[in-house]
Amino acid sequence: MFFIPASGSGSRMFDFLNFSASDTNLEKDEKVNGFLNELESFAFCDDELKSLYVKWKEGAINTRELISNIIGPIGKNFSKLPKGLIPFHSVEEGVLNAFQEHVLQGSVLSKNSRFHFTIQELFEENFLSSLADLENRFEKEYDVSFSVQNSDSDSYAFDKSLQEIPLKKGGFLRRPSGHGALLENLINIDNKVVLIKNIDNVQHLYSSDKTVEIWKILCGLLFKVKTQLQHIYNNPSLESLLEFNKRYQLYTSDQLDIEPNRDSIKNLINRPLRISGMVKNQGKAGGGPFFVKDKNGTVSKQIIEGAQVSNEIEQQKLMSQSTHFNPVMMVLDVYDFEGKKHDLKNFRNDENYFVVNKKYDGEDISFVELPGLWNGAMYDWNTVFVEIPIETFTPVKTVLDLLDSNHQFKK
Asked: Could you report the per-residue pLDDT of 139-166, keeping only the tens digit for each?
């Protein structure tokens, strides 16, 4: 089963197109100019937008009106839609949004693939309509389910004096506590093997062969590692574990510093397992695979975000020199060696929470986000890091990324 967080809004994709009443020189903005000049290259540029585009070039409508018809409620309203519902690519069968393309590519991996998307409840009908459209065009039914982030996990927000913020309708202001809250959604999935990927990292359907190949390799490696660990679990031997670890480097020397008895060995290896693909860092420091020393002095392998790294010069230097980046392409096995599902909450490090600072009604607020889904929420998992090709990482953070050749492929 594919598990794909898809509740994120597409607003950040179009940030540079937002304007205020005081903006008088939109056309002089380099990004705005680049976007408008290439408008017809975007998959979402349908006949309606093309007609407006012609009027804009003829001077019949101004830039503000054209942009409003793309991102505003009078038109496509892309700045409010979830990123998964925004059309990314054009294929022979028409235009595909990110949600539809994930389903198509996952179905290439296996005809029995299942899909689970975490979404905003407000847009469930839109996703269902998009699924029906996909099944109609490709004449096939897909096994797709949805869930929403549990609002009970929302965090209370605080003002600069660390006081709760009352709401006019009663109660206090709360904010979603980050994708770490999706651990509950993952727990509720009834599937032994789960593949995780971000909604905005999807390749064009016609150039996705490499991604499908890498999925197969990661799944195969998961089965191989789990089989060998199962053998060690059934026949506990520190010597066997050390020999196994030479090949897969699953554990650090600190973690292997245990008593050479059955219980110690079983307790170490009987954890959820993840195979995490990592791409080479192309000059952008960010979240990736690191060795981390905890407060007890034990070193383990973790996926760390930039926000978790100290501002100390030495720590920032290590961050900037990191060789690999986390594209979020991982395969999980969430069952133990007795065939029972792990209680995933037992493997989360609750000390790895995030403090977030944002604005609310023009005032500074702060709130806590739960440990990130693939950061602190999987802190005590068995983890194998694997280098994968950069071709598998084509994220769409801004709409201009869709102009990249990876997204403009034509058959």
From this structure: 999 999 999 988 888 999 999 999 999 9
